[in-house]
């Protein structure tokens, strides 16, 4: 379903004050998400010159559909998609297509008909356009009127979690407990810290630790962007799922252009952290697919194809033969 962006009429809320390691509010669980998808996707050129990386297919669904499904299965049915120049086809994917539907219906192709219809029923999709890709923080700032004073989730448009290992529900529960910022991390090899935002962390109160079943909960004491190898405070890398209080918008307004001349979300979060907003993270123990670069995209495609009940057996067999150097040259029928 597609909708128009309503204007916000509520005042700013969010956390603030000092940051004790215990819940400061028992707020309502966030019900809206923002998917910033206006970036230039330079790491995937030339494929992404005319086709948004968010629409590249992983098996037979575009990446963005996995992300909208991830939100919907966490009971987030209101999604603001931040699009950019040349990327409006992303919106069409979530719209009805009556002509296509009637052709499939006439052919009696009910499975495909249902698959096509399902994309328009997953969530209420609203859109806005970031005129120029001036950074993730800048993209998120477009959501201010839409989220209307409430906490909200941010899902980056090129990565997603394994369907049977959900992360977002635990993040939403944790944010409702703390009222602050909730991040997610993966553990990475020490020699890769210079490619990620890295967190310094300490243990949390056991009452908060119990909130998550997606991974252990940590209290975040600092964030550093791409530290040199050997100088990182941990091996916990920030990944593309955030649950943020409404006060982030004020912090973004106060954020100066940082790395690459862009308004960075990390810098805005660092302002709130310094001012006492509680920041916690979940060290995700499930599987995350990163489709923003060709290698991660290929890994996601192969892994998910192998797991599919319909395609998996034949694809696995082909892969085994191929790796053994004996695959037939022809394609599948
Ligand atoms: P990335 O850092 O992956 O940037 O953005 P990118 O442009 O998509 O890709 P590369 O690095 O050039 O290959 C993370 C997320 O933030 C969005 C992107 O679309 C992506 O989902 N984004 C980034 C925006 O919406 N606007 C921006 O100005 C920057």
Key attributes of the depicted protein:
five-stranded mixed beta sheet, six-stranded mixed beta sheet, 12 helices, alpha/beta, 333 residues, binds uridine 5'-triphosphate, globular, 21% strand, Spore Coat Polysaccharide Biosynthesis Protein SpsA, Chain A
What can you see in these coordinates?
- With 333 residues, the chain is an alpha/beta fold.
- It has 2 domains: 32-292, Spore Coat Polysaccharide Biosynthesis Protein SpsA, Chain A, CATH 3.90.550; 293-327, no CATH class.
- Helix content is 30%, strand content 21%.
- It is built from 12 helices and 15 strands.
- A 6-stranded mixed sheet has the order 1-6-5-2-7-13. Strands 10-11-14-9-12 form a 5-stranded mixed sheet.
- A hairpin with a 2-residue loop joins strand 3 (57-58) and strand 4 (61-62).
- Helix 3 runs antiparallel to helix 4 (110-119) and helix 11 crosses helix 12.
- The protein is globular, with a radius of gyration of 21 Å.
- It starts with a strand and ends in a 10-residue tail after the last helix.
- Uridine 5'-triphosphate binds next to helix 5.
Shape, principal axes of CA atoms: globular
Q: Level of helix content? A: 25-40%
Please count the helical segments.
Answer: 12
Number of separate domains: 2
Average pLDDT over all residues: 90
Tell me about the largest β-sheet. Answer: 6 strands, mixed
Would you identify the CATH H-level superfamily of the largest domain? Spore Coat Polysaccharide Biosynthesis Protein SpsA, Chain A
Seen as an oligomer or otherwise, the chain set is: single chain
Q: What is the CA-CA span between the terminal residues?
A: 34 Å
Question: What percentage of the residues does DSSP assign to strands (E)?
Answer: 15-25%
Helix and strand sequence: EEEEHEHHHEHHEEHEEHEEEHHEEHH
